[in-house]
Amino acid sequence: MAALLDALLGMAGCIVHAKEALDGRWVLRATDASSNDIGVTVVEQERGPLYGAVRLWRLALRARLGAVPPALSPRPRSAEEAQTQVKKFVRQRQRDLDTLLDTFPDVQRSHLLDQLRPLGLTFFIGESEEIWGAKDWPMSYVATVETCLLPNPPVERLGQTSASHFLDGGPAHAAATDVQKAIEQLTDFSGWLA
Question: Tens digit of pLDDT for each residue in 68-111?
């Protein structure tokens, strides 16, 4: 099980301790080579080592992605400020994604990148509106390879949000959320990391 967990996490030296519970299930506790906890899970006796390793891997992924709390984002005060903040946010999210993806083994990283691309954003910031009792700027957007601002409203229907809502939580949290969604799409099991 430790060798499988090493392969899933892309590291060496994982240790898995197994203890039989009174009801016949196994309590699995994993640590990395530095004796840092990876997680503890319980599996039924008839399950094999791959099942246990995947359960522990899931806990490690949840800890890694959950370690990025949402941050308060300043509310834009003008359309120009909204445009600047969205551009900065997208570029920082790309850097945060790179940092986060570097913690995955190469094959997993490649699959996640394929799922996440494109990483840029083409967007348009509209005239200010009162949204939920506060001044905000409606935003139309679509994921693209590059990040660019549209000078005029788009003709085709794009994603819709407000600048403040898009910026909410910060780029690092957005990157972690994007990776979590990509993992769940790849596992084809919604809520796998929940």
Answer: 899 988 889 999 999 999 999 999 999 999 999 999 999 999 99
Q: What φ, ψ does residue 73 adopt, rounded to 5°? A: -110, 135
Reported pTM = 0.86
Question: How is residue 8 written in tokens?
Answer: 């899933």
HEC string of the chain equals: CHHHHHHHHCCCCCEEEEEECCCCCEEEEEECCCCCEEEEEEECCCCCHHHHHHHHHHHHHHHHHHCCCCECCCCCCCHHHHHHHHHHHHHHHHHHHHHHHCCCCHHHHHHHHHHHCCCEEEEEECCCEEECCEEECEEEEEEECCCEECCCCCCCCCEEEEHHHHHCECHHHHHHHHHHHHHHHHHCCCCCCC
Residue 1 CB neighbours (<10 A) = 22
- Within 10 angstroms of residue 170's Cβ, the number of other Cβ atoms is 19
CA-angle at 142, arms to 181 and 168, nearest 5°: 60
